[in-house]
Amino acid sequence: MNALTSGICTVFCLALGLTGAFGQTQDSYEYQTEFVWGINKNTSGGLIGGFILKGARKRSDRLLETFGLEIMNVKHPQELRTNSYYTGNFFIFGKSNYLYALRLQYGRDLILFKKAPHQGVEVKAVAALGPSLGIVAPYYVEYSLDNSSFITLRSQYNLNIPVDAIWGTGRLFEGLGESRLVPGANLKAGLNFEMGDIKSSVAGFEAGFLIDAYTRKIEMIPRAKQYSVYPTLYITIFYGTRK
């Protein structure tokens, strides 16, 4: 997490040094719309934080109107992976619920520096906001009623299940049908660096800050502090098309 935070801070510092190089770019090419998809890494997610879709259309020479969709897995700050004593499988100690964030976003991209055909980097300042829908799904674990037998049960984790009786997590997507929905809102700001060398393609990365706020606190780990607001630093690797 510290490495991601340091990396994003470095990106913003380097952006100041790019001004001279990009400001002199000539003969920039024109486009009207673009569509990108990408993989996100953030300080509130796992190895892969989630996925994004984003469409944009030009409102002026340097301003784009954007429409976005993000699907993210949000982790509690105190989540701790633990090995089962009996099987060696991983599970999250004390976790009772997942939180998946479905975010719709409407925003603006301001082109700071245009790129020339087949060279350079296009840099945009991005800002967006919109509604969030928190999907709170039960976290299932497999556990033994009697540690001397191989008869196990699967259920949502609760404080009555001894930690040393847990064999691992439940099946993939188990309990998803029991999810509860919590409405909220999100706001993000960042810098977008597009480095593709083909006019019809988009490739690059975006780094910035995002905050998710829900109408109530989300219980993910019963014994830990509960939150309704989740700030995060993020970096997204994206690819797409434009015309």
What does this entry look like structurally?
The protein has 243 residues and is mostly beta strands. The chain has one domain (2-77, 92-134, 179-242): Porin. It contains two helices and 13 strands. It has helices at 2-17, 19-23; strands at 33-42, 50-58, 63-74, 81-83, 90-92, 97-113, 122-138, 140-144, 152-156, 166-169, 180-194, 201-218, 227-242. Strands 1-2-3-6-7-11-12-13 form an eight-stranded antiparallel β-barrel. It has a three-stranded antiparallel beta sheet with strand order 9-8-10, with no helix packed on it. Strands 4-5 form a two-stranded antiparallel sheet. The longest helix has 16 residues, at 2-17. The chain is elongated, with a radius of gyration of 22 Å. The relative contact order is 0.21. Residues 14-27 have low confidence and may be disordered.
Secondary-structure map:
Elements (H helix, E strand, L loop, with lengths): L1 H16 L1 H5 L9 E10 L7 E9 L4 E12 L6 E3 L6 E3 L4 E17 L8 E17 L1 E5 L7 E5 L9 E4 L10 E15 L6 E18 L8 E16 L1
Antiparallel strand pairs: 1-2, 1-13, 2-3, 3-6, 4-5, 6-7, 7-11, 8-9, 8-10, 11-12, 12-13
